[in-house]
Amino acid sequence: MRKISILGATGSIGTQALDVLRKDRENFQLVGVSANSNSEKLLKIVEEFKPSYAVLTEREAYLKFKGYFKNKNRNFKILFGTEGLNIIASLPEIDMTVTSVMGMSGLVPTIKAIEAGKDIALANKETLVVGGKLVTKLAEENNVKLIPVDSEHSAIFQCLRGNKHSDAERLLVTASGGPFRGKSKEELLNVTVQQALKHPSWHMGEKITIDSATLMNKGLEVIEAHWLFDLPYEKIKVVVHPESIVHSMVEYKDGSVIAQLASTDMRLPIQYALNYPKRGKAVVDRLDFYSLKKLTFEKPDMNTFRSLKLAYEAGKIGGTMPAILNCANEEAVQLFLSNKIKFLDISNIVEECMNKFSPKDNFELKDLLYIEIKIKEYVKTKFGK
Ligand code: NDP
Ligand code: MG
User: Fold this and answer.
1) 10 Å Cβ neighbour count for 385?
2) Can you give the residue ranges of every domain in the chain?
3) Which of 7, 60, 102, 284 maximizes ligand 1 atoms within 8 Å of its Cβ, making it the mutation to test the pocket?
4) Residues in domain DXP reductoisomerase C-terminal (predicted)?
5) Positive or negative, the Cα torsion across 280, 281, 282, 286?
6) Per-position b or e across 246-268, b if 16+ CB within 10 A of its CB
7) Cα-to-centroid distance, 345 and ligand 2 (Å)
8) Helix, strand, or coil (residue 200)
9) What gap in Å lies between CA 226 and CA 245, rounded to an integer?
10) 244 is annotated as contributing to ligand binding
11) Which H or E run contains 147?
């Protein structure tokens, strides 16, 4: 029986992780769950799974949630804020923490979980983007496994199994291309939030959906892959694959390319991470090769989708530059979602921040938290009017 906490249980990944657990009750026990503000959804989760801890990170939602249990007996704890997240991420009774909160809010709780020796099912890619060096070192020191949930990284992780890591020559990270694949800069000038939120193959949270439209998501994934699989950026290539069936590939020194294919359903990489090194019974539809008409591949257009290029640059510069890129992007995406800036402004803002703020080569957690405040404040003040 594996005991787990899910940080961000009410989100897209959290909901699908719960579905995986629902189908495999005898192997998993849910001990801790969190939401930011969606107290109604968290209440349903608590009623169904009966965890020992529930956390809300937004004050009003926390008070509302506590209100549900006024004058009622309850046999679980309700905690508040980042402190609450840190507690459920590192409980002595759990084996694994699923990190499926949004953005940089995942960084500190993931570090706490690693320090407590918990294996991580890592969905929150921003944690590795901003703190890759710190987090991977800490995981090694604490003998903690970082098991990717992101479909591309799960694919690479699976393609590397059974082979010598040093024989891997290139990682081929696939990308759907998002809703604006093939469009020119001019065509992207006036695209709306609604258009950007219409992803052709995946249903995800809003932030990552916008990142998929700008290709920043792929950029963040390149940096994530660099830290997870310890290969230089020159050996990590992005391949656009609109069908989203090949989830990524590894090319070996003899020219063999090993790919992982499956239907477009995040429950598989989630299930794989939760069960690793075992495999569970399929919770997703099986591929039918007779009905799959064709699989296509193309080169990404990094001139139109500049965010991908900027992410490669930030990764190669290293130090705190990926944190600067990530924080500028997180704030810019929020401004786009609230109709304060245009679509193409997102990458312009990221570039401006990368030019304006100097990165530090060596850094600690406090430097990353300072960057988060400073960059987000700068972007909000300058562009959020
Ligand atoms: P969602 O927006 O759907 O869910 C985010 C979760 O985090 C929710 O539970 C939300 O609570 C909570 N949350 C939001 N803001 C905060 C905050 N400031 N502090 C603490 N908790 C917060 O996101 P996704 O599930 O799509 O993505 C989660 C992570 O997984 C991201 O890092 C993303 O990049 C990664 N990922 C997602 C994939 C997907 O298919 N969705 C694929 C690969 C990676 P509430 O519901 O109350 O708002
Ligand atoms: Mg992905």
Assistant:
1) 7
2) 2-148, 153-264+286-317
3) 102
4) 261-377
5) positive
6) bbbbbbbeeeeebbbebebbbbb
7) 23
8) coil
9) 22
10) no
11) strand 146-148
- CB contact set of 13 (below 8 Å; sequence gap of 6+): 98, 100, 123, 149, 205, 266, 270
What single letter denotes the amino acid at residue 363?
F
Kindly indicate the confidence band of residue 55, based on its pLDDT and cuts at 50, 70 and 90: very high
Which pair of structure tokens corresponds to residue 292?
Answer: 């799959």
The reply to whether 326 sits in an annotated binding site is no
Rounded distance between C-alpha atoms, residue 288 and residue 241, angstroms = 18
Distance CA 228, CA 222 (A): 10
Question: Cis link prior to 322 (omega < 30° from 0)?
Answer: no
Q: Mind listing the pLDDT tens digit for each residue in 181-216?
A: 999 999 999 999 999 999 888 899 999 999 999 999
Atom of ligand 1 nearest to the CA of 13: 25
Q: Tell me which residue of 130, 117, 121, 111 sits closest to 8, measured CA to CA.
A: 121
Asked if residue 125 belongs to a known ligand binding site, the reply is yes
Do residues 114 and 139 touch, judged by C-beta distance below 8 A?
Answer: yes
Rounded average pLDDT over 208-235: 98
Q: What is the pLDDT of residues 137-193, one digit of tens each?
A: 999 999 999 999 999 999 999 999 999 999 999 999 999 999 999 999 999 999 999
Which ligand is nearest the CA of 36, by number?
Answer: 1
Neighbour tally for 126: CB within 10 Å: 28
Fold classification of 2-148 (topology level): Rossmann fold (3.40.50)
Strand-strand pairing, 257-261 and 246-252: antiparallel
Write the residue with the smallest CA distance to atom 42 of ligand 1: 150
Pocket around ligand 1: residues whose beta carbon is below 6 Å from it? 8-14, 35-38, 57, 100-102, 105, 123-126, 150, 202, 204-205, 207-208, 266
CA 345/CA 300 separation, integer angstroms: 20
- Please give the Cα distance from 327 to 376 (Å, whole number): 6
% pLDDT > 90, the chain: 97
pTM of the model: 0.98
